[in-house]
Amino acid sequence: MTVPHHRSPRPGPRPRPRDVRRRARAAQVPAPADFATVDLDHDGWLLAPDTGEPVPADRLVDHLAHWLRPPEWATDILVYAHGWQTGQPAALRNAQRLLALVHQQHARHPRLYPRLHTAAGYAPWTVVVRWPSSSQRLRKGYYAVRDRAHAMSAPGRGFAPHVLGHLLGYLDAERGDPRADTLRTATGRYLHLIGHSFGGRFLCEAVQWAADAAAGDTLGWSIATDPGRPFTVDSLTAFQMAAPSNAFDGTFRTLRPATGGHRAPVGGPMVFTHSRHDHATGYCHLHAEHLPGIGHGGMRLSPARGDLAPNDVAHTDLHPADRPYARACLDHPFVNVNASWRYRNSPLNPLRAHSDYFHPESAHLLLSLAEWSRP
């Protein structure tokens, strides 16, 4: 039966387009239950959220199982690690801001993500990794945070890769097989890593550490993994990564394919945005590391030699929010994404584009990686 529409005797004013957009944005803000937090101290060790004290080493796995339980409704698990000059409240706000953009983009352009509009849908749950990143700005501050980040990850001194490796291994075991009939159960979820600045550096370290112990299988991408090291992250995205452009020739060498059949312990692409307007990974990084950072000009690889196989590195521009990414554009072990046209910020900001990644186009990139992770 059709219900007749009755005109109100005193109609109110029609909502202005700006009001409609504002209401739509408000309706798409992620709920607090969509997020969990993991806090590290200056040594990279895990802190208990209820006491703020370090978690005993023999309780690390039990602690993760108690505090980090992926909800049954989640289809994707996102691990987000923040960058320089970000306190604990700001880290959570940044993750919420980024995920709000993801939800808005998903709602506005559903035709771009048909695999995310199946019966299972797309419902991300985000783990926010927080670490002490505050310092002075510009060169002195960059040196201080660089040294701290290195100390937190250095073999024999720092525990961040060990702790995050346990975190990733636990989440990988908990997520099950996302190729099951439905993703709305504990039987399967996709796992994506998202880092900004030094956060991307931490995540690459953690993947290397976790690779030997975790279990999984490759998913929708064509990138092969060695059965002896089956840890599978479905994608790793580093916005404006603070690491030397040649870091994958040395520090992250094990993430490169090798001639002996070894494959990176990642079942999908590793994606790096860069912008020539990023002064933190340009000017500051050049003076601190004697090389530009990945966030300024992208990552590069030396030619194949010895046990290093030829590498598949793709280059693309950051796509506008309404233009789809072809699978062939992203289906590579390494993808450099030039975001100079969008990541710019104000000339009054001394770091310029370093933190200017909160745009619909960034959400579009993340959604496209989730879309193409589906088989």
Q: How would you describe this structure to a colleague?
A:
It is a single chain. The protein is an alpha/beta fold and 375 residues long. The protein contains 10 helices and 9 strands. It has helices at residues 17-27, 60-67, 88-108, 138-153, 160-175, 198-210, 280-289, 294-297, 327-330, 360-373, and strands at residues 35-40, 46-47, 76-81, 124-130, 190-196, 235-239, 270-274, 313-317, 334-338. α3 (88-108) packs across α10 (360-373) and α5 crosses α6. The model is unreliable at 1-27, 180-187, 212-220 and 226-231 (pLDDT under 50).
Instruction: Give helix % range.
Output: 25-40%
Overall strand count: 9
Order of helices and strands: HEEHEHEHHEHEEHHEHEH
What's the number of helices? 10
Structural class: alpha/beta
Largest sheet: 9 strands, mixed
**Approximate strand percentage:** 5-15%
Give the termini distance in whole angstroms. 42 Å
Can you give the mean pLDDT? 78
Widest β-sheet, arrangement of strands? 2-1-4-3-5-6-7-9-8
What characteristic shape results from the CA principal axes?
A: globular
